């Protein structure tokens, strides 16, 4: 199991920046992928950024060039640096760990952190 705790959300004006952190309860070195999702009330959770154990990184098209995902394996922490924020980035952001062990796959989630971008 992996327990995830997010931090760093808040209220920011459009054009501002925030950095989200996701601290894991155990080593993330071998976790298949660490991901950030976001969700707006009434909508499905959307994958925003992903970083694989091999270093592959993917982004939602609308955040490319503005958001940067990174991982610090020594600190068991994943970050999401968000720059040039827009009101449409407002959502609850969730950290996710996708763990593959043999033939079993499990997803673990943090509690979420609110990001609000004012215009």
What does this structure look like?
It is a single chain. The chain has about 120 residues and is mainly β. It has no helices and 11 strands. It has strands at about 5, 10-15, 20-25, 35-40, 45-50, 55-60, 65-70, 75-80, 90-100, 105-110, 115-119. Strands 2, 4, 5, 6, 9, 10 and 11 form a 7-stranded mixed beta sheet that branches. Strands 1-3-8-7 form a 4-stranded antiparallel beta sheet, with no helix packed on it. It starts with a strand and ends with a strand. The mean pLDDT is about 95.
Q: Roughly what is the average pLDDT, rounded to an integer?
A: 95
Radius of gyration: 14 Å
Morphology call = globular
Strand residue content: over 45%
Tell me the helix content. under 10%
* Low-confidence region ranges: none
Total number of strands? 11
Number of helices: 0
Separation, N- and C-terminal Cα atoms: 40 Å
* Global structural class: mainly beta
Assembly context of the chains: single chain
Largest sheet: 7 strands, mixed
* Helix-strand sequence: EEEEEEEEEEE
